[in-house]
Amino acid sequence: MPVELIILGVFIGLAFTSESITGFGSIVIALALGSLLFPIPELLPILVPLSVVMSSALLLRFHADIDWQLLCKRILPTMLVGMLAGIALLQVISSEALKAAFAILVLWFALREWYKLQRGILTRPKPAWWQPVWTLLAGITHGLFASGGPLLVYSLNTLAISKANFRATLVCVWLGLNLTYTLIMAWQGILQPSLPLVGAYIPVLAFAFWFGHAIHKRVNERQFRQIVYALLVLSAFAMLISTL
After folding, report:
1. Residue 67 has what DSSP assignment?
2. Are 118 and 112 in contact (CB under 8 A)?
3. pTM for this structure?
4. Cβ contact 206:13 at 8 Å
5. From CA 86, how far away is CA 171, in angstroms rounded?
6. Which residues of the chain have pLDDT under 70?
7. What are φ and ψ of residue 23, in 5° steps?
């Protein structure tokens, strides 16, 4: 296997360990780091199906933790509409400039929330439009970059969700969206050539599943939130690097 693909496997292991810990971060981290080695269009047919595999494995184990009302009424329908809009926008906009702006937004949010957590500053209640608008924007960024996690975390920031419910619900979102994305790529004919590589990286996912869950069990709710914000910062920096 070429050394570039081995390095990509390391990036995939790091990225999907983050999903096993928190429920998000897999594609945004792997895509940003992997884009240092390969063009993004070549990475998506590898990373999106891998996300489907990882999400399926996590949900088989932790489906009892899903917040179905939050998922079905407040997240998935809005995210799906946004994702389809994002896929359509790929044909008419410059994604690199938009990705840089998106990364800066995520970085600002993560650093602000980390500061508030360290200082014990309570998050103020948000108006009723807050969560659906940011969820829609999360869907659009998922369609553009397969990276809707940061803005979805932002949209859910004011809700009282346990770490187990948070992880399982977000993983269910990614399964639904990325399965749809995978089917679209298969219909476009760009998925099939990547399937051997997808199969080769399955053992990396198995390690990430085990290692990430071991970390998840050992952290409390406050530490969990710190990990989430740290991953958001890492994701934002990785996305900025990928635009250079």
Report:
1. -
2. no
3. 0.76
4. no
5. 20
6. 1, 94-99, 120-126, 146, 158, 221, 239, 242, 244
7. 100, 0
What does the pLDDT look like over 32-47, one tens digit per residue? 778 778 877 788 899 9
Start-end of H helices in 146-201: 149-155, 163-188, 195-200
Q: For residues 145 and 30, give the distance between their C-alpha atoms in angstroms, rounded to a whole number.
A: 11
Neighbour tally for 61: CB within 10 Å: 13
Domain map of the chain by residue range? 3-242
Is there a contact between 81 and 136 (Cβ–Cβ < 8 Å)? yes
Q: Tens digit of pLDDT for each residue in 71-100?
A: 888 888 898 899 888 888 877 776 666 667
The vertex-173 CA angle with 191 and 43, nearest 5°, equals 30
- How many Cα atoms are found within 13 Å in the side-chain-facing hemisphere of 226? 9
